[in-house]
Amino acid sequence: MTVRLLTYHVNQDDPKKCTAKKLKRLGFAEITHDLHGIPFNAVILNPLVKTVFSPEDRVYAERGGIVAVDCSWNKVDEVFSRLKRFRNHRALPFIVPVNPVNYGKPFQLTTLEAFITALYIIGAEQQAEEISSIYKWSQHFIDLNKRFLEAYRNASTRQEIIEFMKRI
Hints:
alpha/beta, globular, 5-stranded parallel sheet
């Protein structure tokens, strides 16, 4: 299984540090700057919603893909307000970033880290490992978060993920 990875990109960050652009350049993901380029049934990774991403979302990911939104963390509210018409918004569970900009700041992931997390949770570990090869630090991301990633992947329901996060 290969899941379609798509980034809704709004050009708000430093292009030299943009993991989405590198993923596209290497053929691992697509980029759109237009809302019409996002499949209606895709899973939108949205840190502002209460519904947690889980293995239950695999069916949506296989059908429509996974969409990460590449924007400045300072403009998250503004950018995500444009995406309300899409139905499958999911927040990633607790995970610790290792990227050089937001190292150790939970939930403040790069596009690459978000994709790795989502792929791992739905059982597409091989694709997650493949895309993690693009930066030296990205394998460390998987190693550091292995306990969390495995717990989330092995959960049967969203509620199990929430219960696990409460124990962290």
